[in-house]
Amino acid sequence: MVSIFRHWRKRLQPVLFGPGALRFAASTRGDYATTSLTGSMRLHPGRKKKAFKADCTRIWGNLFDYTYAQYKDNHTPVAIRCQKHGMFWMKPRDHIQRRLGCPKCGSLFVPGSLQERAAMMLTTGPTPALGQHVLRSHKLALEITAVALKGAAGQASWVAEVGVGAGALTAALLQSPACAGVVGFELDERILSQALEKGGVIRRYHPICRDIPEAARTLRREAWEDHLTGSLTRCFVFKGDFLACRAVPSRCRIAVGNIPYKISTAVVTKLLCQEPLMERVVLMVQAEFARKLLAKPGSVKFGRVSALVQALCSNAQFAIPGLLTPDVFSPPPRVDSAVVLLELHQVPLRHRGVEVPAAALDQLLRLLLDTRGPTRGEGLEARLTEVAERVAAQSLPDSWRLAMAKAGVDPAKPPLAMATEEFVALAAELRNLGFASDAVRRDLD
């Protein structure tokens, strides 16, 4: 029997595994991204699977942990750069398994590009210390663009983008006829260079890249126009920290962005407190923060940013149904994300004829609903007494109890149980006494 087996193995081996052998394809099993096996590799699928994981690690810069990666992780298109024809979209599976390249020239970039591609991605990827997760889904970028520019078909609108990243959302905005132009802000110069270099995603729109002006901390919205004139370009990109700016340009009535999770509250607050108010804000944030942002009064998640949204926005909701899975970002975060839509009132807040700026209301909410602050049973008067003793530099007016009485708010009512109208009324009465003056608001900025 053994001799018969050896006889047939000797005869069939050249047919199955020789130079002219028929090629049969098989796939690895399990949760790994699939890869075709041919020839003798069919006898060692585990070895090929290990090699495939190594290729993915080198090419895609450790974007995925392939021990747990699902099928879709390797089938979501990402932006790839061709040396001759610029950026195009391709699935990682097509590049690694099928060895496909540029759709115009078929180039696999450069010979032996595994290590070079890995080096390029690792040196131009987002800086980990900044907590960035760059959007890499073209389909999602188009969906966000449609939400942000909805109703703007009659007249093109300028858009402010917080966190340009690799330029996927910027390019989607500039492709829309409803977008007159984009003014972007990006802190990480390393990832920004990928979008601005030759062949980059937004390079064909001839962007003008500048450093954020030194006077940005005091520039009002109208004053930004001096830094956006003298060019016909539709794309301005400012390098630096967006939070260091007092305002966004007045031509931008819409704001979008993919916000690093650790600065979500600061960015949302700054966008909501613009003077004059923005028209619409569409942001990608952590799912947990999105629920907090949209929380209603009386909810467990209700807090300072929730109260500010309730007071300033006529419509606050999830812009795209469902949650965004980590695979649409690079590198994938460990949590789910969501896209929120905030449409602001275009009439300033008022109480008994007194205008209440958004910054003044935010200052009051900081004192009443600070995370270090109230327990749910602490009354308003007790809270304000504690604040007056603790915060000396930004202390309340001496007659703050009179303002509380004029606003008609129950002193024993906990701040977390107060209605939006009560916050506005109290802010208006305190403002009559000099609370949240221009000097205080400059300190907050």
UniProtKB/TrEMBL annotation:
SUPFAM superfamilies: S-adenosyl-L-methionine-dependent methyltransferases (SSF53335). InterPro entries: KsgA/Erm, rRNA_Ade_methylase_Trfase_N, SAM-dependent_MTases_sf. S-adenosyl-L-methionine binds at residues 133, 135, 163, 186, 241, 258. It comes from Symbiodinium necroappetens. This is rRNA adenine N(6)-methyltransferase. The keyword RNA-binding applies. The keyword RNA-binding applies. Gene3D superfamilies: Vaccinia Virus protein VP39. The gene is rsmA.
